Amino acid sequence: MKKIVILCLVSLTLSVSFSNNIIAQSDSLIINFITDIPKSLPVSEIIKLEFTLSTDVEIINSQNQSDLFSIYPNPFESSLYIKFNIEEPSDVKIRIYDIIGLEVYHHQLKECENGEKIIQWDGKNQFGYIVQPGNYLIVIQAGSQVKYKLIQKI
């Protein structure tokens, strides 16, 4: 098993190009991005995501109401549903990242009322193209809570 740490930009999209700047060191992965213009980012703009990869794939179909959200079906073929329960009115941000950390989808609900909500994702990226089969990371932020789950498109 390897522990993976991803730093995601919350509200800023950068054009980046990759070269041989991926460095693995013990149980951490460091990725150096190359950009044309140096950028200064406040720490509040970065979310740290940690998860563990293993050679075994375990698909969890969580329908637990005490959790912030559940996803079904998982794995999915063409579309999936993101079901979440808001305890108090807040802004909700849903982001989906591919395996290299690029954002492929985002959805934002301003001042979302409390209660259960269901969002359908049609499996398309922000440009309207169907995403390729593979693993994706869904990150949902509601108020000060941030949760993430790994999903698989087949």
CATH T-level topology of the largest domain: Immunoglobulin-like
The second-level CATH architecture of the largest domain is: Sandwich
Helix content: under 10%
Which regions have little confidence, pLDDT < 50, spanning 5+ residues? Answer: 10-31, 54-66
How many domains make up the 3D coordinates?
2
As laid out across the biggest beta sheet, the strand order is: 8-7-10-11
Q: How many strands? A: 11
What kind of sheet is the major sheet? 4 strands, antiparallel
Helices and strands, in order, run as EEEEEEEEEEE
Overall mean pLDDT: 73
Structural class: mainly beta
Structural Rg:
16 Å
Overall CATH class of the largest domain: Mainly Beta
* Strand portion: over 45%
* First-residue to last-residue Cα separation: 23 Å
Principal-axes shape call: globular
Number of helices: 0
Map the helices and strands.
Layout (H helix, E strand, L loop, with lengths): L1 E8 L12 E4 L2 E4 L14 E8 L15 E4 L7 E7 L3 E8 L5 E10 L2 E7 L12 E9 L2 E9 L1
Antiparallel strand pairs: 1-4, 2-3, 5-6, 6-9, 7-8, 7-10, 10-11
